[in-house]
Amino acid sequence: MAHFHITSDSHSTQTSIEQLFEFMSDFNHFKHLLPEDKIENFECTANTCSFSIKGLFPLNVKIKESIPKSRLTFETTGVAKFVFQLHINFIEEQQTNIKLEGDMNPIVKKMVEKPLHELVNTMAYKLASLVI
Predict the structure, then answer these.
(1) Residue 61 CB partners (closer than 8 Å, separation 6+)
(2) Integer Cα distance of 3 and 107 in angstroms
(3) Is the whole-model pTM more than 0.85?
(4) Among 20, 65, 84, 90, which residue is least crowded by beta carbons within 10 Å?
(5) Any idea where the domains of the chain sit in the sequence?
(6) Phi, psi of 112 (to 5 degrees)
(7) Radius of gyration from C-alpha coordinates of the chain
(8) Which residues lie across from 11 on neighbouring strands?
(9) Residue 79's pLDDT is what?
(10) Domain spanning 2-129: which superfamily?
(11) To the nearest whole percent, how much of the chain has pLDDT over 90?
(12) What local confidence, expressed as pLDDT, does residue 105 receive?
C-alpha cells in the first residue's frame, strides 16, 4: 500500500466557523460537500454514511473525531478498497480546508490522484460556500 495526502486550497467561509462546525457534525449534511453527479446510493445517519462513487466502489464512512470549532475527521469503516481519513479543518478568521489521507495500491494511486485532488478542492469550495 502507498500512503498519500492531499490538502485543498483554503477558502473563506460564508458562515461562522461555529455554525459550520455544528452543521457538518451531523452526517446528514455531509452530502452537501459531495459532487452530485459522481455519487449514488447515498444513505446516512447522524454518525455514519454509505455511498458509491459512480463506476467505482461503495464506501462506508463514520465520524472518527470531533474537535469543536477546530476539526472534524471522517474515516472509512468495514472492508474498503480505499482506506482514508478526511479532515475538515476550521481555521481562524473564517477559513477552512480539507485534507484527505490514506493508503491504497500504488498503481491505483497513480490513476486516482488527480481526480481525488479535484474532489478535495470541490468539497472545500462547497464547504466554504455553505450559507446556514
Answers:
(1) 27, 30, 48, 49, 50, 51, 74, 75, 76, 77, 86
(2) 12
(3) yes
(4) 65
(5) 2-129
(6) -105, -5
(7) 14
(8) 96
(9) 63
(10) START domain (3.30.530.20)
(11) 56
(12) 85
